[in-house]
Amino acid sequence: MIHSLFIINSSGDVFMEKHWKSVISRSVCDYFFDQQRKVANPEDMPPIIATPHHYLISIHRCCMFFVAVCMTEVPPLFVIEFLHRVVDTFEDYFSDCTESIIKEHYVVVYELLDEMLDNGFPLATESNILKELIKPPNILRTIANTVTGKSKHPFVLPAIGQLSNVPWRRTGVKYTNNEAYFDVVEEVDAIIDKSGSTVFAEIQGYIDCCIKLSGMPDLTLSFMNPRLFDDVSFHPCVRFKRWESERILSFIPPDGNFRLMSYHIGSQNIVAIPIYVRHSISFREAGGGRLDITVGPKQTIGRTVESVIIEIPMPKAVLNCSLIPNQGKYSFDPVSKVLIWDVGRIDIAKLPNLRGTV
Amino acid sequence: YKLPNDFDKLTCTTDKLKQININIEVCPERIDLIHKNYRKLCNLLVDVDEWGQVIIINMLTRYARTQFTNPNINEDSGEDLNNKPFYDEDDDEDDDDDSEKGGKRKKKLMLDGDHRLLLRNTKPLLQSRNASVVMGVAQLYHHLAPRSEVMVVAKALIRLLRSHREVQSVVLNCIASISTLHKGMFEPFLKSFFVRTSDPTHIKLLKLEILTNLATETSISVILREFQTYISSHDKEFVAAAIQAIGRCASNIKEVTDSCLNGLVSLLSNRDEAVVAESVVVIKKLLQTQPNEHKDIIIHMAKLVDFITVPQARASILWLLGEYSDRVPKIAPDVLRKMAKTFISEEDIVKLQILNLAVKLYLTNPKQTKLLCQYVFSLARYDQNYDIRDRARFLRQFIFPSAGYDNSRLAKHAKKIFLATKPAPVLESKFKAREQFQLGSLSHYINASANGYHDLPNFPETAPESSVRDVEPPAPPPETRSKKQHTVKKHSFYSESEQSSPADEDAGSLHNQLNSECVFINEENSEFIYVMCYLQKKKKNKKKEESSAESESEEETSGEEEESDSSDEKNKQKTKPAEDTTPAAKPKTNLDLLLELDDVPPTMTPVLTPSLGGFLTPVTNPVMPITPASIQLASPSFIPMKTQELLNKISGHGLTVLSRFTRSPHLFSPSMVSIELTFTNLSSDEISDIQVSNKNLPPGMTLHEFAIISSLPVNMTLPGTIGVDFNDSTQPVSLTISTGSGNSNQLTIKPPIGELIRAVTMPEPLFITEQSKLRGMNEHSEVVTLPAYYSEHKMISQHIYEACNVANIPSTDPKTLRFAGQTLSSKSLVLVTVKLLDNEQVNISVNCEKMVIGSMLLNEIRSHLRS
């Protein structure tokens, strides 16, 4: 399975490595760098590279490459999914995942990796269990440790019996205020052609929870109209059978933040797109061109559209933009050639507009 | 090595996982270690942690490939049309043979109980949040499930496309591989593969590949329109691939070849040189597949030689001119003249083609080109590249034979050699070759055998005895268990039940019987097992009776045996309690308790853990009963784009309303037909507050209005969707639409009968049983003569899809097309069968509980087929 993990920063340095079996020389990353030189931007990096003796499976997140080295046949998604889980855990522990943060918490990072993978096989990946074993860093504890001179970490690990029967929930949770929050996030993906008609639209939704309940709560969540979901995927805590027979989510939640389910509403349903963008762009041979963009609301069922941000990838030829928005701010990144226009709230009476030369 | 036997804990701890892994790594072919644990593994799969699931699924896939027969074997042989009538004749001749063969065929349709168990227990895992679990189940279904059931994984795979970039890449790779084999699976999700500008290049290329694989006559227009937009992208590699994709579509689908070719030719005048060059190469390939009558294109391309600098494209043009020089006798020599001038500065590949062109022209038209040829050849003779020098020396022998070899055979046959018709290149997916690797494996992705990869074993011809898995005390399928009990109790019974089987099998069963006996003796305390069985039996007494009754009706062929079996069983159940009260009443020892813990579902009460899917399921009998539950809603196979004008601009004071049936379920209620209304303002003023002010509905109907359109600017178009429950009748509904300026207009909507139906799918056997229930008055049939141009089934299907919203049911008989749907309000089934007769006639029959709908639908289909 997974032999080693290398973390490579954006400037191409291997700043961290971890081996679960025998040590594999860093030079194996040269194949990776060879490939990296061939592609224009890190997004285009192929996730799997076959070298004569090793297979490099990499993900690109937070401006870093996480490269796992395997020696034998393994389902690639298995490794990819695991690497993403590792990054998720880092983000959960350190609230962000950057090179400097990893360097700052080397010890915790190594401990986490040791706990998550055992001889190349994933072991504990649920954050509730991990947090039981390895306490997340916090300022108070760091200060206390420096003052008392104690080691950062407790020598006594929780005995096996203390780990709960429900693998994703720790035992003995107590809160004075019992509360549960549910966020429903929906993303609309649409492809709209030149004339403004929708070619394809779909909705991807998530239910994210923050549960702070004592003991072992058993929750159910029912939907007004579950038929709408085309396809769903659940956190392992959800009972599949209940969903299949009654369309009810029944689960014992993990403690803290987690994603309960994600769903997908496909193109067979009608997807209302909240805004429309009208544009006219012309480029002249000599260089320079005109740009005129107007945004307006569409099918909003009487609600106002807020915090609108428009991103426009520009062709390589564009060097700079001088534009005048009648609302909000714009910025243009000459390296990635992306124009970002932060519109804010859309007022129907005065439609936001951005015009000028590029 | 011993596989973990105690899956008593709810979560699989790593120790056990590791043992499984050791098993996989050390002795992948030792499947005998899995036998005993197979059912336990299947049942516990849902409760194992995510990573364990992936490993177990992979192992079970390999195991199942060695233990069960190919579920699709019928389809594979079904394509062999010649065999069928032969069989039928044979069957008529002697009845004994008939019954035996019928039995065989039937058996093949039904899956082994354990096979079914595996498929059923892995299905919920498609809902996992872990992409690799989903992929694992997908590959399991791909390699093991009957064709009709593989469809379920498509949706889940599509969902993964929303995930991280790396996941997308792997999943798209697998989809591309599947799509070369089974187009139909992903066709409904075609639009999910449309490329986004934000995708990285390699994802774009994969999506393009899939779109090309999925293209069919019906979807090609949509796909080509997409491809056209891709060409204006600024990602060069992607544009090139898009043009090649157009070429592949053109050569695969005859209907669009010409329009594609025209499109490609128009690309030749594109400003971007890379686009032009790529189109030249693709056109060359296309012309090769159908070279007749494209003189103007060749001439056009010949002109391009002056502008194009990309060597690949230049070489293609030269090759074309050489190959078809007889069509453009005047231009070809001229081009050669130009090329001779620039010969020195050309790239190698172009130089080779110049030589090629020179030889071909010399052979057809020696008078004009002899000098040019000599010139080119002498230039080539002193070229820096030895390949070109060699080629020149070789070709020279054909046209300017050296002295003394004037009459050599080569020179004589030169014309035949060079101007022979060349076979056209076959443009096909590069993912075709990947089928040999297990889907979703590392080897599949890199298209080479990875270290430690083992080929997926092929299905065995005949399944090995399923009883090997019975050894463990309580086995989920009740039938097998009862057999085993009989073995313990009364030896003669087991062999009795098998008596009808051929003699050689008899010996086998005897052997088996001995085997199982040995096992029981070997177990330390066989009595406890006995007790266990008894306990189980007691609990499940009623259930078993039901299930055995069910299986009786299902397996008609083995009906007799079953009957004796079950009656015996009942007898035994009566007698048993009396005999067994003592052991059952015994206080339980430790071992007993352990065994009980070890046990599968029924004896165990689920505690604590949710997602106890496996535990909460009642154990069903191995052969899945075909119930109406297996009727599933399907997405429409065709979405009409035809609109109907409800309100014209004169009577609507500048407002026009178009309507279209979207065939998608309405959000408000599933029994509603959703109708898309398109409002266009053609007046000179803005129209405000468009809404439904009054509706006049016949009794029983309901209507859900569209959201108020607060303002419609001049020359703008906005959609609104209404839902109407027509209550299964075609009576028109009328509604009044009013605008802010006080105008109100009456609209009348009359639905075609075909829109009151929703497509459903079901297994073919169910279709046939349902159809047989709807005979007599409920059946309407008619023989229709088709117009001559109906060449293929697809055309007929297409017309039926246009007429009504039904779904195709894969049929084992190539001469019969089956379609199913259900009415929206009353949910009664609508079954359409089209039998192809000789001399271009078809017999259409519509079975529907509602006679009116049946007859109206038949008329509708008939008129659509004739049009």
Automatic annotation (TrEMBL), chain A:
It is found in: Cytoplasmic vesicle membrane; Golgi apparatus. Residues 177-358 form the MHD domain. GO terms for cellular component: clathrin adaptor complex; cytoplasmic vesicle membrane; Golgi apparatus. The keyword Repeat does not apply. InterPro entries: Adaptor_comp_med_subunit (IPR050431), AP2_Mu_C_sf (IPR036168), AP_mu_sigma_su (IPR022775), Clathrin_mu (IPR001392), Clathrin_mu_CS (IPR018240), Longin-like_dom_sf (IPR011012), MHD (IPR028565). Keywords: Cytoplasmic vesicle, Golgi apparatus, Membrane, Protein transport, Transport. It holds the Pfam family Clat_adaptor_s. Its main location: membrane. GO terms for biological process: intracellular protein transport; vesicle-mediated transport. SUPFAM superfamilies: Second domain of Mu2 adaptin subunit (ap50) of ap2 adaptor, SNARE-like. The keyword Repeat does not apply. It is a peripheral membrane protein. This is MHD domain-containing protein.
From TrEMBL, chain B:
Residues 71-106, 456-509, 541-590 are annotated as: Disordered. GO terms for cellular component: AP-3 adaptor complex; clathrin-coated vesicle membrane; Golgi apparatus. Residues 483-492 have a biased composition (Basic residues). Keywords: Cytoplasmic vesicle, Golgi apparatus, Membrane, Phosphoprotein, Protein transport, Transport. Residues 567-579 have a biased composition (Basic and acidic residues). Coiled coil: none annotated. The keyword Transport applies. It is found in: Cytoplasmic vesicle, Clathrin-coated vesicle membrane; Golgi apparatus. The keyword Membrane applies. Residues 88-99, 548-566 have a biased composition (Acidic residues). It is a peripheral membrane protein. InterPro entries: AP3_beta (IPR026740), AP3B1/2_C (IPR056314), AP3B_C (IPR029390), AP_beta (IPR026739), ARM-like (IPR011989), ARM-type_fold (IPR016024), Clathrin/coatomer_adapt-like_N (IPR002553). One of its GO terms (biological process) is vesicle-mediated transport. Its main location: membrane. Pfam families: Adaptin_N, AP3B1_C, AP3B1_C_2. SMART domains: AP3B1_C. Residues 587-731 form the AP-3 complex subunit beta C-terminal domain. Belongs to the adaptor complexes large subunit family. Subunit of non-clathrin- and clathrin-associated adaptor protein complex 3 (AP-3) that plays a role in protein sorting in the late-Golgi/trans-Golgi network (TGN) and/or endosomes. The AP complexes mediate both the recruitment of clathrin to membranes and the recognition of sorting signals within the cytosolic tails of transmembrane cargo molecules. AP-3 appears to be involved in the sorting of a subset of transmembrane proteins targeted to lysosomes and lysosome-related organelles. This is AP-3 complex subunit beta C-terminal domain-containing protein. It comes from Diploptera punctata.
